[in-house]
Amino acid sequence: MTTYRRAILAIVCAALVIAVAPTASRAEVTRVEITSRQDVLGGKAFGTVGAYEKLIGKVYFAVDPSNARNKIITDLDKAPRNSQGKVEFSSDVLILAPKDPSKGNGVAFFDVLNRGNLQFFTRFNLASQSSDPTTEAEYGDGYLMREGYTLIALGWQFDVKKFQNPKLIGLNAPIATDNGKTIIGSVSQWFIPDKASDSYEFTVGSNIRAYPPVDTKNPDYRLTERSTWTSAQRLVPRADWQFGKMENGQLMADVNWLYLKTSFKPGMTYQITYESKDPPVAGLGFAAIRDMASAVKYKSDAIVHAQKVYTTGESQTGRFNRQLVYEGFTTDEQNRQAIDALLIRVGGTSLGPFNRRFGTPNDLGVFSETRFPIRYEVTTDPVTGKRDGLGARVPAGQEPKIFLFDSGSEYWNQGRVAAILHLSPDGREELPDPPNVRVFYVAGTKHVSGGAWPPANLATQQLPDNPINYLWVLRGLLARLDDWARKGVAPPPSMVPKLTDGTLVAQSKIKFPNVPGVQWPLHVPGGYRVDVDGPLSVLPFFVSQVDNDGNDIGGIRLPEESVPLGTYAGWAFRSERSGAPDTLVFYSGSYLPFAKTRAEREQAHDPRPSIEERYPSRADYLRNVEDAANKLAQPGYVLRDDVKRIVEDAGKHWDWTMTAKTTQGSN
Fold this sequence. Notes:
20% helix; globular; alpha+beta; 10-stranded mixed sheet
């Protein structure tokens, strides 16, 4: 080939590269800036994967408002644009990756952060909590690293409380305007005081701090009160309340506090509604997760690479993950699958205010976020006739593998009535799983895993806190989800209470033991749809039937439930001192220990057999625990390697129980 022909060929090839570059490099991550890079635990090797490194920095994005996949983002068309017509934003990021990527498992596992907090290590590595892990205790037993995951924590929430903890991981979202004019709109926040006071910090535990009132003296702002969440609201006279807090007899200006002349009452539900301005484009949090996932899968110069991407989230971010699927963010702007699998934890049936003008992502979603559709597949709404499904926007062939994991709290309270994840909308029949979905219920557990022993006596509730540690199941299910998504190995079947075998019953048909002094939840409300009005908004209320001890018999029964030392529940009543004692504490659970001896039981008139009547010895008890744990390990609901630790923990529980002073009843 002549020099001339080579030159012509080079020019042609260069032209082709330039022509395809915009398409080939269209990943919406524009750059990643790393501000800290260090070896994890001084270069410690995690099994055969070896050493990990921790990267901290910021990811920069630019998304196209005209792209069909982005049009669902509220107010994206009102955000400022760069010279290419794209909307720019950024997210904090923390990445832990094998130093030798070839030794990893090829999976990027996204921790969809709960209020900016890392949960990877506490939930899957059994570690202590940290926003920036540095010690052995904060990395736990290293399970995720030994398995070879690349771990990514990316900010999706615009209002994480960095004023309290600068290491929280958040989203920097642009502000929406109306053709350059300030947008003003309504904001609302509810709260339930636990004690009487004339001043209350209504922004605590919420993100309402991001929306200060436009005019603290506005006479049209509203404060209401009601005895329970489902009761009718009563308007508090505007002259009786104002923004601020009382200190030493003086009312101090503070937009994060409310002052009420007649004092806030414990257990009452209050709701403040007012105007704020400058709403961030909150829905870009979904785009951030999608586009970072797409970049690590498809972008040649990505900071890390993976063949598969999984996400996980709990409670607030369990609902976020459900909505991520529903709004089509498992597929990127180029219609490629960005997310392959999701482990959705204690999200129940709810979505959230994550993609709304003046959205409040921190809202607990109590009785306020359950709406059609609830299931993944497209179904017909029996009330409106509408057809929809969580997976309706997922292209054929890109269905992500999904595990839905819920506790007793999601069945009993918060209005989430999680039984309709596996029932028809009217509650009359069980529905089969969609091919890409499995549903798991861990019997007798509360919203956020226990594990603390001895069980805590909380001032806010009548019975001790539920101590069951369900993290063993999370570890087992992650392994099964990985086998399914990466290796094509079918997972174990869904494990939930069922109508057909009598383990799932209407709330009115549950049969609790008659334990003196104990209030059972036979009168608490179920759930309501917020997208329809009237009687048809009431959702069917089904829960697991219980045995003679009051323990759930449906779903995955951990040894604490099947070889019990007491009664465990995913509900808890408020105490007298915190007010409204016939209503439930949101997201909590209860523990009612057995009497140690028959004599003690008979003296208390407790119908549940005592510990000495159940187990001849500590050794016998532990043999039963080990047998129960092995039965769970066989189908993969817990890891085989965790059986020994489950038994060891049970031994500690036995030792404490047999030496502790027996207490029960109301605080």
